[in-house]
């Protein structure tokens, strides 16, 4: 049991030392930033996970574009249908008013 306590104490001390070093290490000011990876470089990778992630991203973008187009078309069709309905309603109202004007009111 004493050996277990000694091992735990040593492991804890090493962990604290590593954490302290990680906090005090400052990045070099004259170090060059990492270059950005272009989309072409990601597309030519042989890693299947990266390829799948890129394919999923492309499919999602295509889906969103199709959805946006379909929504815009639906709005146009809805506006046209609404204007047609209003026109039909106006014509029906005019026809009813004419019919009521020519027919005498029964007493």
TrEMBL record:
Biased composition (Low complexity): 23-45
Span list, region Disordered: 23-107
Skewed-composition ranges (Basic and acidic residues): 53-64, 74-107
Signal recorded as keyword: yes
Segment forming the signal sequence: 1-22
Protein keywords: Signal
Protein name: Uncharacterized protein
């Amino acid at each position: 049991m004493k050996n277990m306590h000694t091992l735990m104490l040593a492991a804890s001390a090493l962990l604290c030392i590593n954490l302290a070093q990680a906090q005090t290490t400052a990045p070099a000011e004259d170090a060059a930033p990492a270059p950005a990876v272009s989309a072409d470089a990601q597309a030519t990778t042989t890693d299947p996970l990266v390829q799948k992630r890129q394919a999923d991203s492309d499919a999602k973008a295509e889906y969103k574009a199709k959805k946006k187009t379909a929504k815009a078309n639906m709005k146009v069709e809805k506006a046209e249908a609404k204007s047609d309905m209003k026109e039909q309603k106006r014509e029906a109202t005019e026809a009813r008013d004419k019919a009521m004007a020519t027919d005498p009111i029964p007493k």
